[in-house]
Amino acid sequence: MKTATVETNRPPPRSVDLPTLLAGGWVLLMLFTALAAPLMAPYEITSIDLRHRLAPPVGFGGTMLHVLGTDDLGRDVASRLFYSIRTSLLVAFGATAISVLVGTGIGFIAAYFRGLVEHALLLMIDVQASLPFLIVALAMLACFGNSLTLFVALMGLYGWERNARLARGLAITASAQGYASATRQLGAHPLRVYLRHILPNSAATLLVGATVTFPEIVLVESGLSFLGLGVQPPMTSLGVMVAAGREYITRASWMLLAPSLVIVITAVAVSVLGDWLRDKLDPTLK
Amino acid sequence: MSAVFRFAGPKVLRAGLSILIVVTFTFVVLRASGDPALQILGPSARAPDLEAFRRHWGLDQPLYVQYVRYVLAALHCDFGNSMLAGKPALQLVFERVPLTLALMLPALALTMLIGIPVGAYAAMHRDTWVDRSVMMLTVFGFTVPSFVLGLLLILIFSVTLGLFPSGGADRPESFVLPVLTLGLGGAAIIARFTRSAMIEVLSQLYIVAASAKGVTWRQVVRHHAFPNAIIPVLTLFGLMLGGQVAGAVLVESVFGWPGIGQLLVVSVANRDLAVVQVILLLVALTMTSANLLMDLLYGVFDPRLRGTNSGSQ
Amino acid sequence: MTLLRLNNITRRFPLGSPLYGPRKYLVAVDGVSLDVEMGRTTGIVGESGCGKSTTGRIALGLEPPDSGGVLFQGLPLPRIDSKKWRAQRRQMQLVFQDTLAALDRRMTVSALIAEPLAIHGIGDPASRKQRVAELLHGVGLGEGHGMLYPHQLSGGQRQRVVLARALAPKPSLLVCDEPVSALDLSVQAQIVNLLMDLQQELGLGLLFISHDLRVVRHVSDRIVVMYLGRVVEQGRADAIIDQPAHPYTQALVSAMPRLPGGFDHYVALPGEPPSPTDRPCGCPFHPRCPLARDVCRQSLPELLPLGPERQVACHLVRH
Ligand SMILES: Nc1ncnc2c1ncn2[C@@H]1O[C@H](COP(=O)(O)OP(=O)(O)OP(=O)(O)O)[C@@H](O)[C@H]1O
Ligand SMILES: [Mg+2]
């Protein structure tokens, strides 16, 4: 596939600046942690050690036994942090995949049928604009209760309208180009035209859209988990840890700070990386 | 007259349609979430009681009859009782409205008061270290979620420094941290937006022409650039409101602020559907009106948009 | 035997917004009838905007005519985008002018040529590979070209790929819409000759569209001359070139570089090329016709026979 990239008039390779490099490094570290959490964690996340309750981290009077200290039940904060990263990223990953798939599907359908279907889509986008996602998510959780599958599916609704609008625009541009009508006139089923031709040609831009959706879902997930309405114990996620740490904010601030810092740094890193990716892949995307 | 109607008509229609869709959405979700009779009377209820309950609330009617009744009741502001408090859901929600507004309005003011000057200043000192550090800060401002920001502020200002209380709504100082938390994120967005709007306006020809005529730079900015840059910023207000509403839910929860957000979280946790539904409709109504107002105001400010039917995007 | 028959085809496009005011129409094709014989070539020639491409698209069933009918192998075309319509694409193929746009730039030449085989479920992967190699060879490309991407080929090579792709499912009708207009003269000749060889070999019916009478004359058995959406003259190629009857055809023929059989004197075409949005009344050609009379300004000439297999629409021609 390497030969497919157009060689002509590509701008001279720009050196990546330091913030982008750091951001990339951090995101890679997070991905690695998510994958390797079981190997990295020194303890089980549920293993209680009542003799070492609220032990401080190394450097604040703690020992190497619990590098980031322990929580109110003497559970290892570092181990819980690794697993939280794993859960949060997995939920966000699944939800982003759903959001992009659903959005792309709806966008393509709108582009194919035009007319009434398209108007309906625009109206749905209006409705979405009149309700903050967090509120909708809370209402759905109130009605349907909480399970991990449902929660991921619900998170997957986040940003679908933006992805749908993007996909619709891409599909309309692509069908105006010759290759789509050429394939149609070969006798191809519309599904083939969309899946084999328009989709691969739009994939790069859709992927950039996904990098915008992903960090936002991480934030919504941690927010809902913080409210106690997202990921449920005994599973743990970054929001769950923040919520637990909040009770001990005066006595054991590390319980709060460790997950908070991970959330903040990850959000900033993904934002920096997203800007870079957008500049590089698709300067037309807003 | 007809031009005004042509401009405003579709927007009002779409706003009304949006609300109707939200009402329909709540109806569908409520019906899909299970049998209300079972939910309210409990799983141990006897069959005749369930039957009577269903007949009493019209649940034995065809779905479209139920739907029409539901919409009519909503029009009469009849949303049923809170299961938890035993009071009408509407009353329960409106008792909390003032407290939430007391949080959101100062926060919105703060958003504008910090965001606009900072953005304008950064634009006028473009590419200096001030500009760059401000922009770096704003990245943090809008990526850090409000509940994390709130807890960090508590950690610094109430746990470590002991300046402000960490929760409650009883003293004037109690307002400081929640309002700051809610306002700072929005301020970062407004600052970035103001900056780019200003930069665009400053690069336009008539500004250059005005400054060539010997008017001082300060005057150019005050009388030409700033008024032109501020219009698009004001229209961002509708979008900001959505962020503020979502933010309020988290911030109220962090600071134990007894507003609508906290009521929502408690109601969701207890599956008190009547209350959740009232809040959902209230938010949708507020946001839709705000968006509509902004759209119409934008038309007033920018007469080019009137008459042309630039509806959909 | 007649492969394709267009019967009094009309196609109009609405102008302006559908909501306000009375609808106006642009008549792109107006009462066109023509035949394509099996294994033969019918050429359509005319200025830009006279409705050649639209006629071609209607002939292929890619868009419906507003009135009139299309018969393919004696049967009307199935509804557009229906299952039968898609299956019938195997029989009727199109060759584009803009080959770079017509080829998905993410697919290799081999994959592009194999695609119609996959779409119609012809053969298994191994036999498709074999067929692609045959086709590449058939259009004068090497096996190595199969691994390249469209933008890595020259315009002439791309046109060969488009041709191979169209021929892959062994169609019986090929519509070529300005297949060589974008190419150099020498490459034009190569492609045109290739097309004619392949036609001989495969017995294809060909509808060949071009604004260039030289190319049309070279490939066609029959020539249809169009002007502002109407047929002004049609007949056997040699007859049209040797004795053009319509003043417009005469102008076209005389504008050709001197070839055996060309006209000795040059009949210049005065005036602007016509616009289909405001067509003149009477004979559409009269504003530019050196011989125009009063009758030409008032009534539309009908397409009437002139000798065997020959029709002309001109008041001044004695039928
Ligand atoms: N989809 C369409 N919508 C509106 N008008 C159209 C459409 N397709 C073609 N037309 C109009 O119909 C007329 C004939 O177009 P057509 O493409 O058939 O001409 P042509 O003879 O192929 O010209 P060229 O030699 O430039 O390709 C033109 O005036 C064109 O503007
Ligand atoms: Mg054409």
Folded structure, characterized:
- The complex is a heterotrimer of chains A (about 290), B (about 325) and C (about 325).
- The model of chain A is unreliable at about 1-10 (pLDDT under 50).
- Chain A has a single domain, classed as MetI-like (MetI-like fold), CATH 1.10.3720.10.
- Chain A is built from ten helices and no strands.
- The longest helix of chain A has about 35 residues, at about 75-115.
- Chain A is elongated.
- Chain A has about 290 residues and is mostly helical.
- In chain B, about 35% of the residues are buried.
- Chain B is flat.
- Chain C is an alpha/beta fold.
- Helix content of chain C is about 30%, strand content about 25%.
- Chain C has eleven helices and twelve strands.
- In chain C, the strands form two sheets. In chain C, strands 6-7-8-3-9-10-12-11 form an eight-stranded mixed beta sheet, with helices on both faces. In chain C, strands 2-1-4-5 form a four-stranded antiparallel beta sheet.
- Chain C is globular and about 65 Å long.
- Chains in contact: A-B, A-C.
- At the A-B interface, helix 3, helix 4, helix 8, helix 9 and helix 10 of A face helix 1, helix 6, helix 7, helix 11 and helix 12 of B.
- The structure holds adenosine-5'-triphosphate and magnesium ion.
- Adenosine-5'-triphosphate binds near residues 13, 26 and 28 of chain C.
Q: Any descriptors?
A:
heterotrimer; B: 313 residues; mainly alpha; 76% helix; flat; C: eight-stranded mixed β-sheet; four-stranded antiparallel β-sheet; 12 strands; 32% helix; binds magnesium ion
Architecture blueprint of SSEs:
The complex is a heterotrimer of chains A (286), B (313) and C (319).
Chain A: H1 18-40, H2 77-113, H3 115-129, H4 133-144, H5 148-155, H6 160-176, H7 178-185, H8 190-226, H9 238-247, H10 253-281
Helix pairs in contact in A: 1-2, 1-10, 2-3, 2-5, 2-6, 2-8, 2-9, 2-10, 4-5, 6-8, 7-8, 8-9, 8-10, 9-10
Chain B: H1 2-32, H2 36-41, H3 47-56, H4 63-75, H5 89-124, H6 129-143, H7 146-160, H8 176-202, H9 205-212, H10 217-235, H11 237-255, H12 260-269, H13 273-301
Helix pairs in contact in B: 1-13, 5-6, 5-8, 5-11, 5-13, 6-8, 7-8, 7-11, 8-10, 8-11, 10-13, 11-12, 11-13, 12-13
Chain C: E1 2-15, E2 24-37, E3 41-45, H1 52-60, E4 67-72, E5 75-76, H2 83-88, E6 92-95, H3 99-102, H4 109-119, H5 125-138, H6 155-167, E7 173-177, H7 185-202, E8 205-210, H8 213-219, E9 222-227, E10 230-236, H9 237-242, H10 247-255, H11 294-298, E11 304-305, E12 311-312
Parallel strand pairs in C: 3-8, 3-9, 6-7, 7-8
Antiparallel strand pairs in C: 1-2, 1-4, 4-5, 9-10, 10-12, 11-12
Helix pairs in contact in C: 4-5, 4-6, 5-6, 6-7
The complex binds adenosine-5'-triphosphate and magnesium ion.
Family (chain C): Belongs to the ABC transporter superfamily.
Subcellular location (chain C): Cell inner membrane
GO molecular function (chain C): ATP binding; ATP hydrolysis activity
